[in-house]
Structure to design on (236 residues):
């Protein structure tokens, strides 16, 4: 099954958060939210678009912090999960969820202060086209993540039920430059890949995450990391 077809299945949406962010997966959730907040802060009053918002983990988090945010996704089943999160958090009136195609964003040029996409580019069939469309609708910032080609991620990538694209550092930087953006910052993490953390209980994941973080602070950490976070800006 192709990535987009797999992603839009109802049962995938219903189990998405529990499968990925419970147990040891909580370390993934925590780090990804930290990365988004660090890149986009301050968010209060900022107009933000989340592309491929999925179940609304980040959309709701940013709405709670005062962002004027739209979450867009191709999967209506995922958006329903996001709307339920927004109702539970009491922010359903302060954000919008929209079904749409990331290749044709239904917004005018320079409409947002920032656009971001997490867990998107590994499934993107046209990453160059998508990032150029994201650039079109922002007047300042694009933030996104990629899975690294030369890392432990590649060991189990073949076993995933959907297609998954891995990027070398050079390829990710070429995406940024090809969209006429400048790389403002980059961070790399998770020497032990996501799949391990999702598969083990939290108590077992904890010492691995501590070791992972310690190694990540060394010069070898960036080279061994399986995930990269990219903060790109429109040149002045």
């Amino acid at each position: 099954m192709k990535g987009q077809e797999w992603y839009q299945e109802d049962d995938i949406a219903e189990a998405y958060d529990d499968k990925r962010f419970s147990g040891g997966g909580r370390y993934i959730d925590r780090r990804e939210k930290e990365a988004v907040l660090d890149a986009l802060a301050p968010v209060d009053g900022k107009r933000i678009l989340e592309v491929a918002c999925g179940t609304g983990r980040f959309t709701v988090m940013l709405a709670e912090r005062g962002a004027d945010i739209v979450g867009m996704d191709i999967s209506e089943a995922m958006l329903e999960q996001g709307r339920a999160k927004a109702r539970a958090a009491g922010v359903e009136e302060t954000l919008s969820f929209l079904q749409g195609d990331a290749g044709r964003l239904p917004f005018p040029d320079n409409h947002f202060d920032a656009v971001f996409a997490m867990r998107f580019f590994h499934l993107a069939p046209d990453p160059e086209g998508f990032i150029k469309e994201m650039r079109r609708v922002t007047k300042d910032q694009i933030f996104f993540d990629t899975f690294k080609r030369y890392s432990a991620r590649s060991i189990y990538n073949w076993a995933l039920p959907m297609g998954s694209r891995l990027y070398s550092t050079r390829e990710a930087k070429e995406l940024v430059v090809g969209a006429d953006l400048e790389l403002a910052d980059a961070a790399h993490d998770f020497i032990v890949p996501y799949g391990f953390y999702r598969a083990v209980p939290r108590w077992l994941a904890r010492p691995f995450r501590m070791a992972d973080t310690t190694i990540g602070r060394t010069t070898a950490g960036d080279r061994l990391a399986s995930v990269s976070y990219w903060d790109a800006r429109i040149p002045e």
Observations:
- Residues 26-40 form the longest helix (15 residues).
